[in-house]
From TrEMBL:
Name assigned to this protein: Response regulator transcription factor
Origin species: Leeia aquatica
Domain Response regulatory: 6-123
In-chain residues carrying the UniProt-annotated modification 4-aspartylphosphate: 60
A Gene Ontology BP annotation from the UniProt entry: regulation of DNA-templated transcription
Length: 249
């Protein structure tokens, strides 16, 4: 027997959240569900959903700072990604929404019968593994810092180094720890980062050039020169790839 459908609401407008709660109360007469909570922006939603395993997120699209489409991409990275039902006043995002494997795309004002039908589809899929399509590229990486979710803009990241199961994300003024695999980030952000060593990805925009250096044993090797002058070792294996790709540097 499945548990009640756990639902979370995300909308920057309080009246819209109130209407959704009312509609959910009406839907509860036909469907076993519970409302876990709500958030008025993507940042608050991402933090809350790290701790509450929702089955479904009713998600607005046009919100300040981080819109619903980008939030949906981050939610796909959770260990238990929720199903998404978009609720919006705009119809031009439908293609992008379904590329993110949305259950449904409901136009405001949301009607009870449409919401109920979408939730019933979600209930049918409940417990099944989700075969999520490749999402459009994210603009942020989400890390947990002192129990809170922090979003690191990709264009602020200089390089990333892996050690054991953790990745150190280095920006111009701070470092962050992320649990994960460097290979996965390399595949997702291939247009932004390049591998210079088996344990290091560098933002291509940070590369100023390459120069030869000598290690402690007196052996010559190549170094990647980053702006404003940091140097990172390049492996022999990667040097052959980098040399051809960055001949202009």
């Amino acid at each position: 027997m499945t548990h009640p459908l756990r639902i979370f609401l995300v909308d920057d407008e309080a009246p819209a959240r109130t209407r959704l709660r009312t509609l959910l109360e009406d839907c509860a007469a036909s469907l076993s569900l519970t409302c876990l909570g709500e958030a008025e922006n993507g940042f608050a939603a991402l933090e809350a959903l790290q701790h509450h395993h929702a089955d479904v997120v009713l998600l607005d699209i046009r919100m300040p700072e981080m819109d619903g489409l980008e939030l949906a991409q981050h939610l796909q990275q959770l260990s238990h990604p929720p199903m998404i039902i978009f609720t919006t006043a705009y119809d031009e995002y439908a293609v992008q929404a379904f590329e993110l494997a949305a259950i449904d795309y409901l136009l405001k004002p949301v009607r009870q019968e449409r919401l109920l039908a979408a939730l019933q589809r979600a209930q049918e899929r409940q417990g099944r593994p989700q075969n999520l399509p490749a999402a459009p590229e994210r603009r942020f990486l989400s890390v947990t810092e002192r129990g809170k979710v922090r979003l690191i803009p990709l264009d602020q990241i200089r390089y990333m180094k892996a050690e054991l199961k953790y990745i150190t994300i280095v920006t111009s003024d701070k470092e962050y720890l992320l649990e994960g695999a460097l290979t996965q980030l390399e595949q997702e952000f291939t247009s932004r980062f390049v591998r210079i060593h088996r344990n290091c990805l560098v933002a291509t925009k940070e590369l100023a050039g390459f120069e030869k250096g000598t290690d402690e044993e007196g052996e010559t090797h190549w170094l990647a020169v980053l702006q404003p002058g940091d140097r990172l070792p390049v492996s022999r294996r990667q040097w052959h790839v980098l040399r051809d790709r960055f001949r202009h540097l």
